[in-house]
């Protein structure tokens, strides 16, 4: 059985959990106490992940980190959600890179600073980050105007990757992205309808934390 290290506020952990659930693969969660500094400990970085990040997936003696790597591994191993052809597989990889570099990266940072950061965020920094979030969402919204899913007519790990943070409560970011980007909102509902979907606060370990700022 897979062991997935992570916590419920981590959309990157949710990406992997959703893939496993949609693939019907059994897994067990391993709680990472991120907000009490677990990933900053020397022993955790030595024994679990030198990068100090979640998620971490254990498959027997194999340990994988970085959600894009994990999703690609699972798609290849189980022959599902990886793209139906070589060209689709390349397109999946293209959107995985875009997600990790922009779509998830900017939004996850914005949300963390607003909802969970140790001090009130700098308004100038937040304004800059919001501009980057809006630009990334606009690209995906335009792409989804003519596509049910990110690559082809069926879901792939590109969808699992990009949806990692879209299901968290809007109060955590205050950006009202589902209202402003209707194609993203409709796509999110299609993902929500997939067999195996579950809310990150219900399927991942840890306790929900009220936004701070």
Question: What does this protein look like?
Answer:
The protein has 213 residues and is an alpha+beta fold. It folds into two domains: 2-81 and 197-203, Glutaredoxin (3-Layer(aba) Sandwich), CATH 3.40.30; 86-192, Glutathione S-transferase Yfyf (Class Pi), Chain A, domain 2, CATH 1.20.1050.10. Helix content is 51%, strand content 8%. It has nine helices and four strands. The protein has helices at 11-23, 42-47, 67-78, 86-116, 123-144, 157-162, 177-180, 182-192, 200-203; strands spanning 2-6, 27-31, 56-59, 62-65. It has a four-stranded mixed sheet, covered by helices on one side. Strand 3 (56-59) and strand 4 form a beta hairpin.
CATH topology of the largest domain: Glutathione S-transferase Yfyf (Class Pi), Chain A, domain 2
Shape: globular
Strand content: 5-15%
CATH architecture of the largest domain: Up-down Bundle
**Discrete helix count:** 9
Let me know the average pLDDT.
98
Described by strand count, sense and barrel closure, the largest sheet is:
4 strands, mixed
Class inferred from helices and paired strands: alpha+beta
Q: State the helical fraction.
A: 40-55%
What Rg, in angstroms, do the CA atoms define?
17 Å
Order of helices and strands: EHEHEEHHHHHHH
Alpha carbon gap, first and last residue: 39 Å
């Amino acid at each position: 059985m897979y062991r997935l290290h992570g916590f419920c506020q981590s959309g990157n952990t949710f990406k992997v959990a959703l893939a496993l659930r949609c693939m019907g693969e059994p897994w067990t969660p391993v709680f990472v106490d991120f907000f009490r500094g677990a990933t900053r400990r020397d022993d955790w970085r030595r024994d679990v992940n030198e990068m100090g990040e979640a998620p971490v997936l254990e498959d027997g003696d194999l340990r994988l980190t970085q959600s894009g790597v994990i999703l690609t591994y699972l798609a290849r191993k189980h022959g599902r959600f990886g793209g139906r052809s070589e060209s689709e597989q390349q397109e999946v990889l293209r959107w995985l890179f875009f997600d990790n570099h922009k779509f998830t990266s900017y939004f996850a940072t914005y949300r963390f600073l607003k909802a969970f950061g140790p001090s009130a965020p700098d308004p100038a920094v937040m304004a800059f980050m919001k501009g980057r979030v809006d630009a990334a969402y606009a690209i995906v919204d335009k792409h989804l105007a003519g596509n049910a899913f990110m690559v082809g007519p069926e879901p792939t790990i590109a969808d699992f990757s990009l949806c990692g943070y879209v299901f968290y409560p809007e109060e955590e970011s205050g950006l009202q992205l589902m209202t402003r980007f209707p194609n993203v909102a409709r796509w999110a509902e299609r993902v929500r309808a997939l067999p195996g979907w579950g809310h990150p606060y219900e399927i991942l370990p840890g306790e929900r934390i009220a936004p701070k700022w």
